[in-house]
Fold each of these.
Amino acid sequence: MRSFMGRDILSLKDFERQEFFRVFEIAEQLEPIARSRRNADLLKEKILVTAFYQPSTRTRLAHEAAMIRLGGQVTGFADAKMTRAGDFYQESIKDTVKMLEFYGDVIVMRHFQQGAPHEAAKWASIPVINGGDGWGEHPTQILTDLYTVLREKGRIDGLRWLAVGDMRMRTMHSLAYGLTQFDCPITFVSPPEMSLTEEFKAEIEDYSLDYKEAEHVEQAIAEADVILVEPVVQPDYTKSRDERTGELDLTPANYKITRELLTTKAKSDAILLHSLPRMDEIPTDVDITRWSRYWQEAFNGVVMRMALLALILGAME
Ligand code: CP
């Protein structure tokens, strides 16, 4: 297995099966630190640089919380408009990261352009973590989700997944790549205009992912052990900022997980994941059902980033 020390985390396409399990093992070891809300000193001499060119609540703050929990420090920006990349100069990724590499020891970048963190990694002498790039990928979110499944169900192999939402989403791409390393059949349910592209399907078929597509959640929910939901009422992920204008559409029943649907059709021990933010695809009365695991997912988001930072920065091998 390759060492994680000094490694960029850009895509789950790069991840081997044993590497997933190594990350999960480290996450489990570090989890008590987060659970007991104390800070350790594992990364006390390290600095995380956050470079967020697109809004985020969870990804940026979970990385920051993870760094602080491990005794490290954090610097960076949450609004590129207040940097030279977002004003008159439109400073390039290369010129920006050639500065950032002197301000810290690892960069986490979110960008509206697909491939921007990869471009950053090409120039930076310190590791780069992809915190979501356009419609591209969101590897740390799906590592969090897989870890949540492992913790909640005790295994990953042998579980059937249902993924509902916009298949152009970066999480869906990382999910499909990630599941190629496990024995996990998956059904994708999305509006036709948001379905998996032919090019992406060819790629995941090449990686032997066992998948099918369905039109309505009702056709697939009964056999699912893990239900992962994303919105179909979405902003444009290729924009730095997509302000809400006018009336919003409501989520059609085909892509909605309601309490009634779970009660009447889902397996009793299935688990429901949503990386959040949500629109109306999971009504809030689902939150207190036994299926929901999105708050556990949020906690695990910090734990997963602790594991990744510790591995990348060489504090754990
Ligand atoms: N799940 C997720 O990526 O959330 P944020 O956009 O708030 O980071």
Amino acid sequence: MKIEFYGLSKQFDQDRTVLKPMDFSDDIHTLAIIGPSGGGKSTLLRIIGGLILPSSGRLYVDGIEVQPDEKVLQQHRKKLGFVFQQSGLFRHLSALDNIVLPLVEVHGYSKIKAEQRAMELLTRFGLTSDIDKKPSALSGGQQQRVAIARAVAAKPKLLLLDEPTSALDPEYTTEVLDIIKELKEEGMNFIIVTHEMGFARHACDKVAFLCEGMLMEYGRSETIFTMPETGQLQRFLSKLLEWNV
Ligand code: ADP
Ligand code: MG
């Protein structure tokens, strides 16, 4: 999936530039966005997803410009799946209904088709015995698996994940990352913001390093991790590796 942007920037307040003008053009299959907190990773992901507008610049996905027009943005968002740090599941609905509801309301599935699709995904993600449970009865890892099932249910062209495992206990992190890896093997395109460097390095084809609102490095993941060019990336990686076994 081709992602392009030119002169893309974001300012929330007059004097606080969160993203400095940046250019990018590549065919994305699986991309990890890494970098220190506050560097602008979530902001960039939200702009790509059409959830917020850039202050300047143009964004193209699959050659189509994502124009700052509510109708265009809605169409754009419909083609994507979103997963955030907190699962964002509807608290009053069962796991099954959390997946069924958007399929029916947003994507125009019939109730029967939506339930079939939801069951198929819950089974595949190892949640067969949890279909009737509300989010509060599920572990953090199970909730994120339901959230991922919901995000991919309508077969999005691109899945956007913003730190999907950072609110989880370590034992649940693996089960969620495994599912994302499985989706990759099935051909799902995704962009993931993550602090899981092993996942960025080994499960993602490309890595973008965002720091101080700048896209400082971009390339094949193995190259980014073995031959960091900027002092910022070198420092970022060595800090992360400090306590590794
Ligand atoms: P990251 O995801 O890399 O931690 P973010 O994109 O969340 O970084 O944030 C980058 C900067 O933008 C932070 O300093 C944050 O406080 C600021 N920021 C993010 N969202 C908003 C907002 N809605 N209004 C004002 N400032 C924001
Ligand atoms: Mg963030």
Amino acid sequence: MAAVLPPDGSARSVRIVRDRASLAAIRAALPGPVGLVPTMGALHGGHVALIERARAECASVVVSIFVNPMQFGPGEDYERYPRDLEADLRTCAAHGVDLVFTPDVPTIYPPGHSTTVDVGPLGTVLEGAARPGHFRGVATVVTILLDLVRPDLAYFGQKDGQQVVVVGRVVRDLALAVGLVVVPTVREPDGLALSSRNAYLSAAERAAAPVLYRALRAAVDDYARGERDAERLRARMREVLAAEPLARPDYVSVADRETLEELAAVDRGALLSLAVRFPSARLIDCWPLD
Ligand code: AMP
């Protein structure tokens, strides 16, 4: 069941596949190397950066679009998560994607599915503490997508810094034969990281949202001036966030880039990360320190 969609105005068309058998057949004929960009759709400039990087490095580019129910907790935004397949297909066609895989839930999790991938403590700190089970869902769906698509390279955004660490651990621990490529975060001119969830923000919240970037930048600048005390870097981020009345910080973190354990001193790099609740959306951002 592979369809060809003529995107409006574009000379290119993109193949779409929804079931496992057609995916396997089409995948087998794709010239390598094959790059996979896993997404939940509602594609924006951040996703496009991943697609363009894959396009530059791979002979064939596959984009998966799947809003993964396993990575949403009860009461989270699974039902209202933005979905716009037509616009996504136009974006994929315009950026030279060869194949879009848009499975439904039973295609990824057939009836009776019960095996999950648990990365241990890495998945229970930071986002994992705020969203129990989230990284089990991420690790499980990424493992299934990698197995179904069998890419040579898979592309992930630095924006979701803990996800990068978790997926790296899965690939290492399960000896998966894929290379991971991490693409820098794409930001609005005012510093706000592009995210499908930015669409939830009111005008006032949107105006306040760059506070995440400002908090990270303040800590990055202190680090550049020689600050190595992790607690002072956390305090700096908290101080910037506290000045924004619409923002309620969930956590600020200065953690080891491999274990995600909170650091006392930054002497071998670190991952700065934070999560902030606004009335209409919860936003995350991060910044790796070398
Ligand atoms: P999502 O559709 O939110 O699951 O994201 C799919 C991929 O795009 C993930 O690897 C994200 O980290 C990446 N991504 C999302 N937003 C950005 C951004 N602003 N810059 C770079 N990558 C991003």
